[in-house]
Amino acid sequence: MATPKQLVAKVAEITGVPEGTVVQHDRNLSVAELRTTGGRGLAVAKVTFEDAANLLIAVAGSRNVKDSAKTVREYRGLVSSQPLDFGDVERGHTFGDALAALLEAAPRDRELFAGPEGGTIEVSIYGPNPSARIEWQLLNSQGKIDYRSKTKRTFADLQFVSQFSQVTIGHVGNLVSD
Questions:
Q1: For 4-20, how does the pLDDT look when each residue is reduced to its tens digit (9 = 90+)?
Q2: Helix 4-15, helix 166-177: angle, nearest 10
Q3: In the chain, helix, strand, coil percent, each to 5?
Q4: Given phi > 0 = left and psi -120 to 50 = alpha, else beta, which region is 136?
Q5: Does pTM surpass 0.85?
Q6: Cβ partners under 8 Å of residue 157, min gap 6
Q7: SS (HEC) of 133-174
């Protein structure tokens, strides 16, 4: 299992976000108790798939680094009317749980996440009104699931979208599972 420092380095490398920015997101999540914490040396914390999902949500969904914890709280609880269901993954009525499930499944089923020959996965995070989508096209299944807030949306004419693919899911999932 990876340490928070290793997770931060991998997320920065694979997303192209400066490492200092990802470090600050991680620090914010730790302070807000949205990331596993531990001691130093042999007692250093080992990150979970949920920790990795939270960090990816913070990095992709935060417009300002100071909003990391707020962003994770808004996005990880987004709900869908159906669970994520492909391969041996069947869970995730919430966006945070579904993303953690994808990260956990990636190391077990590498062929499912192999890109255009084996399949693709795209995760989209929309704002400023929080919503998300997981879309996949694999050898044996395809589909998309939308995650929405239960609260009423406010009007916002300026929208943003952040996306990442099976590349990020695979690299981060492999790191956390090792």
A1: 999 999 999 999 999 99
A2: 160
A3: 45, 25, 30
A4: beta
A5: yes
A6: none
A7: EEEEEECCCEEEEEEECCCCCCCCCCCEEEEEEHHHHHHHHH
Give me the amino acid identity at 115. Answer: G
Residue 173 exposure: Cα atoms within 13 Å on the Cβ side: 20
Kindly report, residue by residue over 134-147, the tens digit of the pLDDT. Answer: 998 877 778 899 99
Q: What is the Cα–Cα distance from 166 to 27, expressed in whole angstroms?
A: 26
Phi, psi of 120, deg, nearest 5: -135, 150
Distance CA 57, CA 60 (A): 5
What is the C-alpha separation between 71 and 56, in angstroms, rounded?
11
Lookup: tokens for 65: 């680094």
Inter-residue contact 148 to 78 (CB < 8 Å): yes
Q: Which one, of 70, 95, 85, lies nearest residue 148 by Cα? A: 95
The rounded distance, in Å, linking the Cα atoms of 18 and 146 is 29
Query: Which residues 6+ apart lie within 8 Å of 110 measured at CB?
Result: 170
Our CA angle for 149, 94, 84, nearest 5°, is 125
Element (H, E) at 41: none
